[in-house]
Write a structure and sequence with these properties.
- With 283 residues, this protein is an alpha/beta fold.
- It has one domain: Alpha/Beta hydrolase fold, catalytic domain (Rossmann fold, 3-Layer(aba) Sandwich), CATH 3.40.50.
- It is built from 7 helices and 8 strands.
- The chain has helices spanning 72-80, 100-114, 133-144, 187-194, 200-205, 232-244, 267-281; strands spanning 14-26, 33-43, 52-58, 84-88, 121-131, 165-168, 219-224, 249-254.
- The chain starts with 13 loop residues before the first strand and ends with a helix.
Length: 283
Amino acid sequence: MIETLHIEHRRDVLSLVPGVAFATVPGWFNATWDQLKMDIIMPKNREGHRPLPCLVWVCGGGFMDVDTAVWLPELTRIADAGFVVASVEYRVSAQAQFPAQLEDVKAAVRFLRANAGRYCIDPEHIFAMGESAGGTMASLLGVTGDAPGLDVGENTNVSSAVQGVVDVYGLVKLSTQPVAPSTGLPYWLMEALLGVGFTEKRAESASAACLVSEKTPPFLILHGTADTVVDPDQSREMYDALLAHGIPAELVYIEGAGHGDDLIYQDAVIDRVIGFLKGLAEV
């Protein structure tokens, strides 16, 4: 059989560019240096292409592990919808204590903004999204904006602020309690991140729900009702803090979903994420 297809060009063909170095950080016992990297999904043909909004994705892992590649298949749907997607690396708690993790994801935002032309990015529309510990970091990106003292390393002449956040069951209120309220996470996990014997003030410095201000961008929060790792009350606390400061916010519960549940990544939920981001990007 011979056939001619008449195809309409309806979407960009995408390229995955893995291992893009964006920051240099202290390595082995501060005696060496490591490069932090990101994987970027972007249009293959970028010449003459209009700049696209960018989504910075932050992987979870209990602050102990991170993998920039593991969520890329799911993130492709967002890239198909007209976004550049960058899945970024950050130091885990075995490498450095907080705020190193926040400094790293802020460095990623600055790198993307400073190199926006190269990666087909609209520097005025950069958003953050993350799950679990990545949701913690994405939320902290949203509430810290250009707060002094957190932009260290390269590209400090550009902003690390993001224009919107999707928090997927992130821990947003840390505590000094042995079993922190509203979470089933073990206390030693918090000590690894914040230091042995950390204070309530120290916990609040890493708690997005404590840092909301009138400058915080809009949030979409997703949480499963059956999550036993990060209690859904965490997300409600973040939502209430946002509303108290007049920040547009949406809290969406996924009925019956546990922590990291496949239900949270079904098409109906991702469509909600895409709609939220497109509304902010005005596309």
